[in-house]
Amino acid sequence: MLLLERRPVDSALMRWTSPVLALVLTVITGFVLFLAMGKDPVEGLTFFFITPVSDLIGLAELGLKMAPLLLCAAGLTVCYRAKLWNIGAEGHFLMGALGASVVAVQLADVSGFWVMPLVLVAGVIAGMLWAAIAAGLKTHLNCNEILTTIMLNYIALNLLLFAVHGPLKDPYGFGFPQSVMFAESALLPDLISGTRLHLGLAFGLLAAVAVWVLFARSFIGFQLNVVGQDPRAAAFAGFGARRLTWFAFLVGGATAGLAGASEVTGPIGQLVPQVSPGYGYTAIIVVFLGRMHALGIIAASALLALTFIGGEMLQIAMNMPKATTGLFQGLLLFYLLTCDAFIHYRLRLKQPVRQSIPVAASAATQEA
């Protein structure tokens, strides 16, 4: 019989092997799924993982998808290190996109070097204000942040839909739910000429480095770690849990809001209902896959960005459904959580216990 036995000490090897093993299992499962659907698995996996990054344009698109994932994941890392389970990066992202778009539309006829920074700051503030709702509910009413942030995601989505169907709708857009195109002064500059890669990737990389510095070199990062590992010890040391909760949520809202602002001022250039294919939710996988470490979330964001591009490639090349992207992301998260169990537990083979009958009792039974 196989049993899960608690390890006396968590396995450091499994902590870093688990993401690699989860990826391998995801690829193997994908191979089987392609076979089950009557598709060539080698061709399918090649289109999903290799073809999208086989040239400069593909690499630029990978960076384009990485940018919002990195920004959202950086903010979530701050929350999760403090054991604040913020699921609201998607809502912060959408509100950041909406806030930036409101300012960009108002300045559609204005030019100047200050327009783009102002639009980005508006997105950051909108994301922070949206995160502040969950922070206030957590600190003042003791509401569960998982539930509040999930519900706020849907409210944010409906506010964005209201805006593009109402106040921000382009009057000359032939009835399509979209805002007017932003002015050139409100758009982010390209990093590589001839591609769609923009300055948002630099924002994401800087955010990842900033998170590393926060936890490796700052006292407030130390406080967040202590609060996450032992709240009673943090309280005894005088670390204000309420203040740290606000700090973590506001950082998460700021980075995700900047991601939303960068998306509408980058490749899209206007506000549309499909501004996010689920970046905020996917960033949760990035955080855990990257082990809440700067280099880890950079690598994980590249991998998850590849799933978005690979899914689009499969739609075009092999007529696969759009849900393939979500399927691979879900498999990766499932296997990651399963493999993570072996950080704390190990499998043991338990031999069945045989009940022996005492000799005296056996003899008495025979005499009777």
What can be said about this structure in brief?
With 368 residues, the chain is mostly helical.
Descriptive overview:
With 368 residues, the protein is mostly helical. 70% of the residues lie in helices and 3% in strands. The chain contains 14 helices and 2 strands. A two-stranded antiparallel ribbon has the order 1-2. The protein is globular and about 85 Å long. 43% of the residues are buried.
Key words describing this protein structure:
single chain; 368 residues; two-stranded antiparallel sheet
The major sheet is characterized as: 2 strands, antiparallel
Question: Which value, in Å, is the CA radius of gyration?
Answer: 25 Å
Overall geometry: globular
- Counting helices, strands and paired strands, the structural category is mainly alpha
Q: Please work out how many helical segments DSSP would assign.
A: 14
- Unreliable sequence segments: none
Percentage of residues in helical conformation: 55-70%
Q: Overall mean pLDDT score?
A: 91
Total strand segments:
2
- The sequence of SSEs as H and E is EHHHHHHHHHHHHHEH
User: What oligomeric state do these chains adopt?
Assistant: single chain
Q: What is the secondary structure topology, with strand pairs?
A:
Layout lengths: L1 E5 L5 H25 L4 H9 L6 H26 L7 H18 L8 H27 L3 H21 L34 H18 L1 H11 L1 H6 L4 H28 L10 H11 L4 H25 L4 H22 E5 L9 H9 L1
Antiparallel strand pairs: 1-2
Helix pairs in contact: 1-2, 1-13, 2-12, 3-7, 3-8, 3-10, 3-11, 3-12, 4-5, 4-6, 4-10, 4-11, 5-6, 5-10, 7-8, 7-10, 7-12, 11-12, 11-13, 12-13
